[in-house]
Fold these 3 entries.
Entry 1:
Amino acid sequence: MSIEMRSLDYWNNFYKTCKIDEESTFCSFVKSTLPKNVLVFDVGCGSGRDSFSFAKAGYHVVGIDRSEQAIRTNLERVEQNGLSSFICFYRMDIGDRENFGKMVKELSRKARLEQGRLLVYLRFVLHSVDEPTQEMLLQCLHDGMESEDMVAAEFRVKEDESRPKVFPDHYRRYVDSDALVRELTEKYRFQINYYVKDTGLSVFRDEDPYLARIIATRI
């Protein structure tokens, strides 16, 4: 079995047994900075914890994840919570460049038609993919997003590699966040509005990961 398939099996099983409903600290932070006329694209939405938090705050949300189990569970919760007018979920792998790129363009266009702008929300996504997939993702954002659309990302950095983990048994890549900031500004035409790298940002049980947070605007 390939590494990719083992990883997908891991996450399908994870979302069967691990239920985390409360919003992340990153979601709380991002919501405090957002205007109301924003369409949220939650990439790698997982359990939907942040998708549902955005929706309950009145934002329209589209969430995608490659885990069939995660999407199935999230769709059930949409009906149970009466949020079908605010939120929808689709199974999609961000490695599918054609369909992912198409969705970015469609959602950016939809946000504009509704006199708003798009927020691409990437919590714990960048460190879960390899460098070629990250480059493809960023290129899709460059190509599909319009001026004033935004990206909000939180991810593990190189300083986190040797720190203890609650869930140590799945793939992680430790990102050079300073290099990523340079790429966003110099290659992909984003303006950095906020950048921090530190611990204490997303403590979980006994784990205090070393993370970066970036909020950027397409120019």
Entry 2:
Amino acid sequence: MPPEPEPPPPTVAAVHALLARELGPPVDGDVRLTWRRSGPAGAPVQRLVLALEWRPEHAALARPGDAWFLHRPWRLPPDQPGGAVGVFSSHAAFDSRLSVGPSVALASRLGLTGGESVFRRPGDPLPIGVVADDAPGAPRGAAEWRALLRAEFGGADEELPGDEPDAPVCRVALMGAMDGTLVQECVRRGAGLYVTGAMRVPGRDAARSLGLPVIAVGHSRSEMWGLRHLSRVAAGRLPGLKAVVVLP
């Protein structure tokens, strides 16, 4: 039998629609999802290149027909990336929904269910995090959780083992910030582990006083997780597209 033909590449409009679904509703004051479009909505996209921000050395990676996704697009020169049919971007929505914080995608990847949103202060437009439940069955211990998170994010910047490193963790806090008030609120909601990007002194002191295990996976690692997630989703839902994540 002859080999099946390669699926056709998706269009700029199809890539836009996929990113819009994953990033959710627009956030007031955020950058535009379509930062720049050089081709028509029906133009084919051969590759989606995802990077945290534009750097001059990225110009050597550009190919005609590419679309790019930049978390921070502000340094992108007007003539770059050469030959791209479009540049997409998201800053606030990406940080909230595809980084450590109130991310449905991350919670699902980690096997967490349900979840209560945590806000930094009344009236915040977006939650700063979520406290979610481990999957039904035997809950994983804090040490097992920290090993899982190091594997998922490719390392960690700092960890606190807590007073009982092997105690089962029934609820996990995924938080985009760390201070004493947030730590106390998550403990009040039953969190047995606090996951964040960067360890902050007031939050560290509060966690130590409460015996709460903490893992700070690193700000850049948490952002890179979001890029890898978008890459996986793009490859799975748009089979004619190649997705490439650029390392920082």
Entry 3:
Amino acid sequence: MHTELLTVRAADGTPLDGVHYVRDGDARPPSERTVVNFLHGRSMNFYVGVQRFAADALVAAGYDVLAVNRRSAGVAGIRDSFRGVGDAWALWREHRMDVEAAVRHLKELGYRRIVLAGHSQGGLLAGDHAAKDPDVAGLILASPAPTFAGLPSTFADTQRAEFTERAKAMVAQGKGKDLLFLPDWPWIISAAVAVDHLTPGLVIPLSELTARFEGPLLAFCGDTGHDARLLPASRAAYDRSPSPAKRLEVLGGCDHFYVGFEERVTGLIRDWLAQHVPVA
């Protein structure tokens, strides 16, 4: 397998690091190949999660793989200055912009068969892009988030209301980039991100997005983990899909990160691709 580390730039100039895997010695031009573009989960990155453990098998089966960090990779850090970057500051329009940058990069390379595969929040973003891009050849939703709510979905309603009101006040005072400290993951979040989802019409629920995508769809989710909304979200996304080539898989005893289920998930993705989006 040939591995290329790369950097693509979003429309606003933000650099996004990633990795492109292809089979070593494959002489076919990109226009004759199928690529799987992985979208990582919230606070994650291109070298952990599904994209990390499934890439080898997919490349061996004849697929190319791209995985790119959105600017939300990691909770908080620095890159080329002392300005904070990461999930704590990433707005929804910026998530979308970063997904578009990766897809644009693939199209500029010459790919015409692009499968979007998103985990958790990445699943919601994959659905968001697929719903408006007729060039997407297939959609894979791995424990997809049903929507984006700023604060973690596991927050109690009383906590959510309290933190949301604090964030609103901070934004009104011009302190949208200032951080709120949370009692649980992701531990810190900027006031602007905490209230970003309140913008009318900004975030479209996943089930509405899959209702707009007619291509092949694979949705899978474990039945254990931190967020009880995820399995119903997978079912709703599957039910609303008009695709004649759709599949829903419930992984009994599996958590949100597929620990111990890596081979099963990899085989599920590989076999579904072979059936519905075969190697060109």
